[in-house]
Design brief:
29 helices, 59% helix
């Protein structure tokens, strides 16, 4: 409508329009009204807002008329009242059966509308239209709704789901909501579009009042497709949590179904993101706190609480640290008083709170510098190196500082366990200083193998077991295997392996010559470790001058050292050396003491030499009976010296000793001759027969 018509003009204009739009029109002959001929009326117009001229002041001095709001339509300016009358005339001219909506786009170059909005509202409200929509201001290009509001309402968009209830009738509430969103959208998307604003005026407050009926086909196919696509996309985006996609949809959509829900969801997501960022910043500032106060405040006040687990863990760690600090303080005071170096060292290197670390280090230095501590530590090291059970037990019972107690206890436990497993093997095949048989011939080979095999199975890596088991091989005549095992034991630093390996060089298998130098070198290594057999071999080698640079005096010193250890062979050699002046001055009393110790302990070789002292009667009173008893005892045990002295050398025995021998043989029932002390054939024959009887038994 280029100009808003008067009522009469409107009637003619609408009648003309109706005639042109219908092939056949029917009217009541006696009526000049068009009522009932129009279902819906939508009016759209563009115009401008200005202020009307108030005119000159009255001559009577009354108040001059105020300027009012004027509407310019197509170059025709009319006062606001006239504008309202014209709108009413349109309604009357058409008399629509249903509702009517007017859409105004009014420029406001002088920006006067806001001051007169109330009178505009009253004017359009009384015009007869169910709803008036006024868009005020100059709309810049691209700042209008994507689809004109009139077109959208005619098409029933406001009623369609999800915009409305889809009943085919657009209610006032549905229209208001759709218009509010559509008209506000340009300004929301583009700040430059904020110079326009809209006013929606309803005739009444009845939300359910129908203001438009849906007209099928009002939208083009492209727009209908757009509605369908956007409705589908909106359903997908609702609840998806995809903030970026929701934002992009709201920026680009034309009809924007579920806009408010999506906008609310987007706002919620963005608010959550803001909270997330704020909480992350807060957490970054408190995560390293050494006190739990701010961490507790975070847990009490956080909303998203994405760092709850970390905060709770940190609080627990702080609590544990505090508890550890208290426990460490109590432990430090206790162990510092005990001067427990093991605990103090562990604390100094692995403490948690470390409140007393410097004090601990100072105390460690003080204790380690103490002379008594050094002596105690040296004693432990010796016991550990020698794997001496008795020394370890003594150290554990008497230590004051007890540094490395755990190590000593562990080694002692290992020794006890090993002894429990090894004990039967040692008893069956070990060397005499450890409770085993002295002579290889005394080894019960089958029993020894059974005991040692069981021990080796339990402790396969124990090198000492291999050395002990090799004595069984040696007794079985497997000399090369035994020698190899002894040499391997030397490599593993098994003390008794040195003497056994040295013996194999001193008395090698048949077909091999002795190597006295190698034997001496091995024996010296074993002697330094306290090995008895090593000392015995050195006594033999040095006493016979078989090793260059070592003589009988050195052999005597070794014998004295071995005797002091309780070695019966050492006791024998010491007595023998003193009796014969080998490496020592002759000392028959000393010889007697040492030889008697060896003989009393069962060392057979000592018996004939002890008998010699009883024969002489120099250092002690002569005792022919005792001499005869010792010689016959040696004979029974097949000692070569005793046999020689009772056979080939019998004539060298004093007559009183021969007499005592005859008497004892007679008591045994092997001699029937005279007890006269003479070296006759009968006596010698009886002695040989006596010796043969024991040889046969053996």
């Amino acid at each position: 409508m280029p100009r808003l018509p008067t009522e009469d003009q409107a009637k003619v204009a609408f009648l003309s329009t109706i005639l042109r739009s219908n092939t056949i029109s029917t009217f009541v002959a006696n009526s000049d009204e068009l009522g009932g001929n129009t279902d819906q009326l939508f009016v759209t117009l563009d115009g401008a807002i200005s202020l009307s001229d108030p005119g000159s002041a009255p001559a009577d001095g009354t108040v001059a008329p105020q300027s009012g709001l004027a509407i310019d339509i197509g170059g025709e300016e009319m006062a606001l009242d006239e504008f309202g009358n014209r709108l009413s005339g349109v309604i009357k001219a058409v008399a629509p059966e249903y509702r009517q909506i007017a859409f105004f786009r009014l420029s406001d170059p002088a920006n006067v509308f806001a001051a007169h909005v109330t009178e505009f509202q009253k004017t359009v409200a009384s015009s007869g239209f169910a709803m008036v929509v006024a868009e005020i201001g100059a709309r810049a290009e691209g700042c209008g709704p994507a689809v004109e509001p009139a077109t959208a309402l005619v098409a029933g968009l406001a009623d369609r789901q999800p915009f409305g209830d889809g009943d085919g009738q657009t209610s006032a509430a549905e229209a208001s909501r759709w218009l509010t969103d559509a008209l506000a959208r340009p300004g929301r998307r583009n700040a430059d579009c904020g110079n326009t604003y809209a006013l929606v005026v309803r005739a009444d407050a009845e939300d359910g009042k129908t203001v438009a009926l849906s007209v099928p086909g009002a939208l083009s196919r492209d727009l209908e497709s757009q509605v369908y696509f956007e409705s589908f996309e909106a359903k997908f985006l609702l609840g998806s949590g995809e903030t970026d996609k929701v934002g992009a949809f709201l920026e680009d959509c034309v009809f924007c179904p579920n806009e408010r829900e999506l906008t609310d969801e987007l706002a919620l997501r963005r608010q959550e993101e803001m909270k997330r960022q704020l909480e992350a910043e807060i957490w970054a500032g408190i995560r390293e706190d050494a006190m739990p106060d701010r961490l507790q405040i975070y847990l009490s006040n956080c909303q998203l609480c994405e760092f709850r687990d970390e905060a709770e863990t940190a609080i627990a760690e702080i609590a544990a640290r505090d508890a550890a600090r208290a426990a460490e303080a109590a432990d430090f005071r206790r162990f510092a008083e005990l001067r427990d170096l093991t605990w103090l060292r562990g604390y100094a290197t692995g403490c948690v709170a470390c409140d007393f670390r410097d004090e601990a280090r100072t105390l460690i230095t003080t204790i380690e510098a103490d002379a008594a501590y050094r002596v105690e530590t040296a004693s432990l090291l010796d016991a550990l190196e020698s794997r001496d059970r008795t020394a370890l037990e003594t150290w554990l019972e008497t230590c004051a500082t007890c540094d490395r107690r755990d190590e000593a206890e562990a080694e002692l436990a290992a020794l006890i366990e090993a002894e429990t497993l090894i004990g039967p093997c040692v008893a069956a095949a070990g060397l005499p200083q450890f409770g085993g048989p002295r002579q290889l011939a005394d080894i019960n080979r089958s029993a020894a193998r059974e005991a040692c095999d069981a021990a080796v199975a339990a402790l396969p890596a124990n090198p000492r077991l291999k050395v002990i088991a090799a004595r069984i091989d040696q007794a079985d005549g497997m000399l090369e295997a035994a020698k190899a095992a002894y040499d391997e034991g030397v490599g593993a630093d098994v003390s008794e392996a040195y003497g056994l390996s040295a013996y194999m060089r001193f008395n090698p298998p048949a077909g091999q010559g002795p190597d006295f130098e190698a034997a001496a070198a091995l024996a010296r290594g074993g002697a330094a470790k306290g090995d008895w057999l090593s000392k015995e071999i050195l006594m033999l080698l040095y006493s016979r001058n078989l090793v260059a640079g070592h003589d009988q005096s050195e052999a005597a010193l070794i014998a004295a050292d071995a005797a002091e250890d309780g070695n019966i062979v050492g006791e024998f050699f010491l007595g023998y050396f003193k009796l014969n002046g080998i490496g020592l001055p002759v000392d028959e009393q000393g010889a007697y003491d040492s030889l008697k110790l060896a003989a009393d302990k069962g060392y057979v070789r000592a018996k004939p030499f002890l008998a010699e002292i009883y024969e002489r009667g120099d250092a002690i009173s002569a005792d022919p009976d005792k001499a005869a008893e010792l010689l016959l005892s040696g004979l029974k045990e097949r000692d070569s010296v005793a046999v020689a002295r009772l056979t080939d050398q019998l004539g060298e025995r004093p007559s009183l000793v021969i007499r005592a021998i005859q008497q004892k043989l007679q008591d045994e029932g092997v001699y029937s001759g005279r007890v006269d002390g003479l070296n006759g054939p009968g006596t010698v024959g009886a002695i040989r027969a006596y010796a043969d009887s024991f040889r046969q038994q053996g």
